[in-house]
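This part of the workshop introduces the protein records we will be handling. As an example, a complete record with its sequence and its structure tokens follows.
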Amino acid sequence: MVVRKTYKLTQVVRAKSETKRFEQMLDAIVQSKNGSTYYQYTEQLDAHTLKCVLKVQDDIVRIQRRGVINMNFIFMEGARTDTFYESLAGRHHFFVHTNKIEITNDDIEIDYDLYEGDEKLGNYTYTLKKED
């Protein structure tokens, strides 16, 4: 079954001594298929549009973004995963350490640290919250 829902996306980035917060409203298409739930939405990044798919399967969350950046992050609580991130600045190999995944009803919160090699780039919180 395919359903349209409105979500508030909040991303908090804590890097060095600075904290940045980004928020936007999203119209998402939510679909359950083969034991997974998919959230398809369009995200704005500055003047660019990214096509995004967030997939929840058991305790694993995947976020795929396509557009001016291309990435496929995999989040597994307590685990370290690796990925490639492509942007206009080039291709980067990152490691993601997932501190926490919280999924309740239609809300998803992911807290993770992002590394390039051994260097921690920052702590990130990604929250997708259903609006009433």
Notes: The two ends are 20 Å apart (CA to CA). The domain at 2-130 is CATH 2.40.128.20 (Lipocalin). The chain has a mean pLDDT of 95. The chain has no helices and ten strands.
